[in-house]
Amino acid sequence: QVQLQESGPGLVKPSQTLSLSCSVSGGSITSAGYYCSWIRQHPGKGLEWIGYMHYSGSIYYNPSLKSRATISGDTSKNHFSLRMTSVTAADTAIYFCARHEMSTDPFDPWGQGTLVTVSS
Amino acid sequence: QSVLTQPPSLSGAPGQRVTIPCTGSSSNIGAGYVVHWYQQLPGTAPKILISGDTNRPSGVPDRFSGSRSGTSASLAITGLQAEDEADYYCQSYDTSLSPVFGGGTKLTVL
Fold it and tell me: At CB < 8 Å, which residues of chain B contact A?
């Protein structure tokens, strides 16, 4: 059973870079058909897809965040990461990682999420 | 502003049937892209409830069902129970295959 767990700093200063990691257990991020997505949820608000990485190495971003987001994978540690540059208070959110088997398959499972607050 | 439109809140009494609509456009649901539904209980991550418009993953009660028509989709819950009180989100894709979400509907069981 695949499980995902996000980790990273809970507080980031404005204009700095947010860095999060998603550790995957029970399956390899290089398994065929494996997509890993990052999704965020602003406090009390809805969900926003940030981007995904496919096991083949291809990466696709939400066009609205593409200029600031970078997703990468570390096969040796079986985890994938999100970096987001030049953060502002508007980036304060719960960040989730999630897996899906095809690009149009549902996000399942999800990590528990990690709250990132952007504040000085 | 979410790409897909859902009512912010709905309520129903135990045992009743409620329907949560999800309205899209010709660029997403109307283009034929599948719709998924998620349930998010307070303080937890969303969980898949309905996939591919109408499919219930293993373990999801058959009280939950999904449908679609034109540029919209709906989640129906019959025999409403107290444990169904949660936020519900629809999700589809746009023409660039970017996942898009509804703004979520908070369901209150009276």
Answer: 2, 33-34, 36, 38, 44-48, 51-52, 57, 89, 91, 93, 96-104
Chain B residues in contact with A106 (beta carbon < 8 A): 36, 38, 48, 51-52, 91
DSSP 8-state code for residue B56: P
Residues of chain A below pLDDT 50: none
Strands (E), chain B: 9-12, 18-23, 36-40, 47-50, 64-69, 72-77, 86-93, 99-101, 105-109
The length of chain A is 120
Structure letter (DSSP) for residue B83: G
- Residue in the structure block whose two tokens are 């940030």: A50
| Cα→Cα distances B14→A29, B35, B59, B80, B88, Å | 42, 27, 21, 5, 17
pLDDT in tens, A65-96: 999 999 998 888 888 999 999 999 999 999 99
Here the tokens at position A9 are 């700093």
Q: Say how far apart CA A104 and CA B35 lie, in whole Å.
A: 9
H/E stretch holding A52 reads strand A47-54
Kindly report whether the peptide bond that precedes residue A14 is cis, defined as omega within 30 degrees of 0: no
Q: What is the pLDDT of residue A32?
A: 61
- Look at phi and psi of residue A78 and say left if phi exceeds 0, alpha if psi is from -120 to 50, else beta: left
